[in-house]
Amino acid sequence: MTEEERILAAGERALGLDRRDIEGPEGDRHRSAWDRQIAPLADFLSAVEPPADLFTEIMADLHAEQARLVTEADARTRSWRSAAILAVLLAVGLGVFLLAETGGG
Amino acid sequence: MQAFLSQRDSGRSLSALLSGVADGETRALAQLYAQTSPMLYAICLRMLRHQDLAAKTLRTTYVQIWNDLTASGQTPEHPKSWLITQARNAAITALRRSDSAGLKPELLDDDALPAFVNPDKVDGGNPERSALMDRLATLDDSAREMLFLAYFDGYTRDDLAARYDRPATTIKTWLRDALTHLRADKTSPGGAE
Fold first, then answer.
1. In this predicted complex, what is the ipTM?
2. Chain A closest CA to B1's CA: distance in Å?
3. What is the pLDDT of residues B48-60, one digit of tens each?
4. What is the pTM of this model?
């Protein structure tokens, strides 16, 4: 693909005609350049107020996601703690066993 | 909405607001939403032609904006075009998903969609927009219409082929010719810059 073709392919992606994103950093740069160039088209559309409670729903989504992340982090912490306790118990058990073996022998 | 806003945020630029969002400030997100949601909602509504789907897509867009910015901690160099791209990408994804799922929601009539306006009458002149309009004016009517159908209404090449009763390969050639005319600086290595 020539440079010219890459630039035009990026233009097609910016228009939404092509969803493939396979061109790496150079393709991304061309795509961003097109995005900037055609963005003023949006000014030709009259603004419309979204539903009144939508921002509250967005905040609820974000809180729910944060809560999920905290729960996942807690679960990870709990499993690490359990693994650590288990490792300590095994080490203590092994120590006791070794002491008993050496003391008895 | 008002509960999230403060007087201090009301005059902040888009760059400052995106920077605030990247720092995890919900007040900055609220102000960003207040400033930009009517524009982004119009984009989603025009493309999806369905109020609930457009609202859901807008909601996804702002959650994504929050997640992207707070994760990277960086703000985009061109805030407005970045925001528009986020909303268009989300709307195109929603549109293609509903098409591939064979969903046929009851779509809004043309007269219920966001109308086209002359932006110079709304916010005065804008050099970048004027330059783009000059280049659009060099296209013939059908090429300009195809670009608008793709940009605003989410038409694919196949949709355009059906509308103009031409093979998709012909449409691809026409669109590439139109994009060649639109390129701002044909000598720049960056292409469209």
1. 0.82
2. 7
3. 999 999 999 999 9
4. 0.81
